[in-house]
Amino acid sequence: MSLNWPEAGIKSVGEYQVSAIPFVTSSTLAAAETREVSFPRFTKFIIVRNQDSADTMQVGFTLNGVQANPAANTNFIKLAAGESVSADLRIKSLFLSSSDGTPDFEVFAGLTDILPKQFITLTGSNGFSGVG
Fold this sequence. Notes:
Elements: H1 13-17, E1 21-28, E2 34-38, E3 43-50, E4 57-60, H2 63-66, E5 76-79, E6 84-87, E7 93-97, E8 104-111
Antiparallel strand pairs: 1-8, 2-7, 3-6, 3-8, 4-5, 4-7
């Protein structure tokens, strides 16, 4: 009997049917900072909350997406003070950006047992329009 069990992959349905492994981080973005939040495993869902009482922030899936590069492509969600976004997404990282101010943020994610190396990188040049 073999002990070389196959690794879970992005199409492993069972990974999305069982309860998730919790991941939580919070911090403050500096003015005009863009920060990548990398997850140790693939996500099942994410919740991002802008805890700030005044400053806005952007949430996206690529560096170009949150920095609007080129300027005509704004591939991000803008969160006003106190707003949050939640989504069932399988991603390995996300990008947070502040164009002005220093917003406080929280990221809560449910992780699967799928390693990030199992998925391609999301970019506009790879054919994923709408991510930047």
